[in-house]
Amino acid sequence: MVKKLPSYELPSPTAPFSTYEWVKAWHETIGKDWELYILSVNNDVIAPFARKGNEIIFAGGDEVTDYLDIIGPDDAKKKAWPEILAFLKNEEVTSLHLNNVPQNSPTVSFFKSHASSIIKEQDTTPMMTLPPTLDKKDRHEMERKIRKFVRENANIACKDGNNIEILLSLMKLDPRKKEFLTPAMEQFFQKIHTMGTITELLVDKVPAAAMLAFRVNDTLMGYNSGFDETNFSGSGFYLKAMHIKRAIESGAKTYNFLQGSERYKYELGGKDFFVYRVDVTL
């Protein structure tokens, strides 16, 4: 049985991307053009969709949400999709465009055998088991960069907090991130940052880098960062390396770099974990 819901709740802890709070923040800022279209399937699967005309996407936005999927037990997800598609077709939906579906999701395996769908690899979200196992070359390169930063800077400290203004100001030092941070996008970050922790790297008490991360059980997810490479060369890499070190010390078992194939993720020990785009015609 499929029915529409005005909202939903999930047991805690869970990844922030799956929560209604995240979906609501997206809808109130960068997703205003879409209607939230949340479905419940047999009371054990939630499908957090958004609708515009006859098109369906996952609510949450592929530009800010690294993993998107229906929510529930894996064995229930695959069983839910035929009911979801039948319901949507009856509601005059003609297409689904589903981004950032994790490689191990039953959603991917279901649509691989669905005649009217196209699946393609969309991006990677490198992650690693902690402590990382680095080959000799990568370990030497990481240690060299850390030593260089320590040698060139004094009074280095890391502190945790929720200073979103520091993070946004450092992100804007990168021309691409400055363009990305539209007023609506900044509003989105203002709404979601308290779901995680912002770690600041200070050099002589001056912010050199900052990172927003989310902790879910024994996994730490590095979501977004900003750094001042002009005045503190190497600050971004140093903060990420220290972030992993502190994750290990706190008992985390997995570090997830989230989307993007930047070189530093592999230098620090990341291994590919892919997300897929699924396009469906009804």
CATH uppermost class of the largest domain: Alpha Beta
What's the CATH H-level homologous superfamily of the largest domain? Gcn5-related N-acetyltransferase (GNAT)
Q: Unreliable runs, pLDDT <50, ≥5 residues? A: none
What number of structural domains do the residues give?
2
CATH architecture of the largest domain: 3-Layer(aba) Sandwich
Lateral strand order in the biggest sheet: 1-2-3-4-5-13-6
Distance between the termini: 19 Å
| Alpha-carbon Rg, integer | 20 Å
Fraction in helix? 25-40%
At CATH level 3, the topology of the largest domain is Aminopeptidase
Q: How many strands appear in the DSSP assignment?
A: 13
Roughly what is the average pLDDT, rounded to an integer?
Answer: 95
Element pattern in H and E: EHEEEHEHEEHEHHHEEEHEHE
- Tally of alpha and pi helices: 9
Please provide a written account of the structure.
With 282 residues, the protein is of the alpha+beta class. It folds into two domains: 2-123 and 275-281, Aminopeptidase; 127-256, Aminopeptidase, CATH 3.40.630. It is 33% helix and 30% strand. It contains nine helices and 13 strands. The strands form two sheets. Strands 1-2-3-4-5-13-6 form a seven-stranded mixed beta sheet, with helices on both faces. Strands 7-12-11-10-9-8 form a six-stranded mixed beta sheet. A hairpin with a 2-residue loop joins strand 3 (45-52) and strand 4. Helix 2 packs across helix 3. The chain is elongated. The model has no long low-confidence stretch (mean pLDDT 95).
